[in-house]
Design goal:
Two copies of one chain form a homodimer.
Chain A lengths: L5 H15 L6 H8 L3 H13 L3 E4 L5 E4 L8 H9 L16 H26 L3 H8 L4
Antiparallel strand pairs in A: 1-2
Helix pairs in contact in A: 1-3, 1-4, 1-6, 2-3, 4-5
The structure holds a DNA duplex (30 and 30 nucleotides).
Chain lengths: 140, 140
DNA sequence: CGCATTCGTAACTATAATAGTTACAGATGC
DNA sequence: GCATCTGTAACTATTATAGTTACGAATGCG
């Protein structure tokens, strides 16, 4: 599992875009709210664009906006877009083939880790960007 | 979430100890099966000892063994022992206090991440070291 | 057209976590 | 006494992430 804050930042970014509605928001503006560098934001926006969660436009008056309604974007979508594969890691070195435990442990652990990752994704799938926005602005 | 293999290695270690039954296993033997250095194993055994999952004895004929029955040690116990706190991370820098989203996003995300970590632990709690051993050695 | 704006991305640096390695004090049992 | 084994310190190597500067290309506007 990554020791990254990309997921947290990505949720923040999409919440800002949802907040802005149809107005495109540029990376510099987002960077101020997140309190980081605009390139870091553009890298994350790029990943979100590849996952079809946002659209971006270069040029004057450009920026990014949600590619679909905020209640159709789940945290699982965001997680997959910025964290990619599985979170829980296997051994680095292959365990010994000489040992009965070493030979089989990878397969057995693999099953456990897949189940765990599935649980993470199921949990994240229950919350949408619209839910996050609603909690930030309880009274619209 | 850590980018470590400590959890995988720790499960491997406890599986070996369960396999060995009452025979103490020394760190050098474990290191061969895991295919790493004995100090790395001792560091993990030390964490498992602090969590009361194993007991270790120095001296000739010493080594480590399970502190309780393999069916009373869950993967959640192991996870907590070697990975410590929460897996899913927040922002590094505090978001801007000037922005309504920045002000509140940490609280909202914090709730989501707590829920997600709870789901991870619930999933891991369903499997014991004995279950792992049974899958490795289906016919006892 | 010319120009300011903005994205996408490369290249580099800085920081931090992890694993691996050597070394050694202290406990243990024969 | 002595070989064995744990616990831990100290150091290096590797890797991931974030941050920063820079620049080409797309865009829209006067």
């Amino acid at each position: 599992m990554p020791t990254s804050s990309r997921f947290a930042v990505a949720v923040h970014v999409l919440t800002l875009l949802a907040w802005a509605g149809d107005e495109p928001v540029n990376s510099a503006t987002v960077a101020v709210s997140v309190n980081t560098n605009a390139v870091v934001i553009r890298r994350i926006l790029c990943a979100l664009g590849r996952a079809r969660l946002v659209t971006s436009q270069p040029g004057a008056g450009g920026g990014s906006r949600l590619a679909r309604r905020a209640d159709r974007i789940t945290l699982r979508d965001i997680y997959r877009a910025v964290e990619g594969g599985d979170s829980f890691l296997m051994h680095r070195q292959r365990p010994s083939r000489r040992c009965p435990v070493g030979v089989n442990i990878e397969d057995v652990l693999g099953g456990v880790l897949r189940t765990t990752n599935a649980a993470v994704e199921q949990t994240l799938a229950r919350t949408t960007v619209a839910d996050i926005v609603a909690q930030i602005r309880p009274c619209t």
